[in-house]
Write a structure and sequence with these properties.
The structure holds two protein chains of two kinds. Chain A is built from no helices and eleven strands. Chain A has strands spanning 3-7, 11-12, 18-25, 34-41, 48-53, 59-61, 69-74, 79-84, 93-101, 111-114, 118-122. In chain A, the strands form two sheets. In chain A, strands 2, 4, 5, 6, 9, 10 and 11 form a seven-stranded mixed beta sheet that branches. Chain B is mainly β. The chains are: A mainly beta, B mainly beta. Chains A and B meet through strand 4, strand 5 and strand 10 of A and strand 7 and strand 8 of B.
């Protein structure tokens, strides 16, 4: 059974960079059939797609966050990571990693496996 | 791209049916048959309930069904049960490998 697990600091200071890692177990991140993505959810609010990565390293980002986001992959560790720079209190959220399916070569498939999420609070 | 539009709340009595709408544009919901629906209980990760407009993953009850007309997708929950009370989110492919979510709908079972 595929499992995803987010890890990283739960508290980040304003203006600093938020860094999270998602470890995939029970399956290979190098599979040609899937993308790997990050989604966030501010407390009491809705879901927001941050971006996705393919095992080759190709990345796709939410245009509203693109200038501050970097997603990378380490296939040797079966992990992918998120960096969000210059954070403010508005970036406080539960961050989820998830798998999405490749459809006709595009990131069109559903998010079918999710991690449990990790709360990151931005505060001094 | 803007978030997809969902009603903030919906409700129904046990055994009844309820439909939740998700409105987008020709560039997302109306342009592709890649609409998904997710169920989220408090403190839990979202769970995929419907994908590609109307397909159900293994293990999802057939009480959950999806459809689409033009720029609006819908999720219908039939035979409402207490455990269906949750937040529901739609999402759609929006071109260029970008994904959009709706703002979410809180479903209350009366």
């Amino acid at each position: 059974q595929l499992q995803l697990q987010e890890s990283g600091p739960g508290l980040v200071k304003p203006s600093e960079t938020l860094s999270l890692t998602c470890t995939v177990s029970g399956g290979s991140i190098s599979s040609s059939n899937y993308f790997w993505g990050w989604i966030r959810q501010p407390p009491g609010k809705g879901l927001e797609w941050i971006g996705s990565i393919y095992h080759s390293g190709s990345t796709y980002y939410n245009p509203s966050l693109k200038s501050r986001v970097t997603i990378s992959v380490d296939t040797s560790k079966n992990q992918f990571s998120l960096k969000l720079s210059t954070v403010t209190a508005a970036d406080t959220a539960v961050f989820y990693c998830a798998r999405s399916g490749l459809r006709d070569g595009y990131n069109r498939g559903p998010l079918d496996y999710w991690g449990r999420g990790t709360l990151v609070t931005v505060s001094s | 791209q803007s978030a997809l539009t969902q009603p903030p709340s919906a409700s129904g009595s046990p055994g009844q049916s309820v439909t939740i709408s998700c409105t987008g544009t020709n560039s997302d919901v109306g342009g592709y048959n890649y609409v998904s629906w997710y169920q989220q209980h408090p403190g839990k990760a979202p769970k995929l309930m419907v994908y590609e407009v109307s397909k159900r993953p293994s293990g999802v009850p057939d009480r959950f069904s999806g459809s689409k007309s033009g720029n609006t997708a819908s999720l219908t929950v039939s035979g409402l049960q207490a455990e269906d009370e949750a937040d529901y989110y739609c999402s759609s492919y929006a071109g260029s490998n970008i994904v959009l979510f709706g703002g979410g709908t809180k479903l209350t079972v009366l």
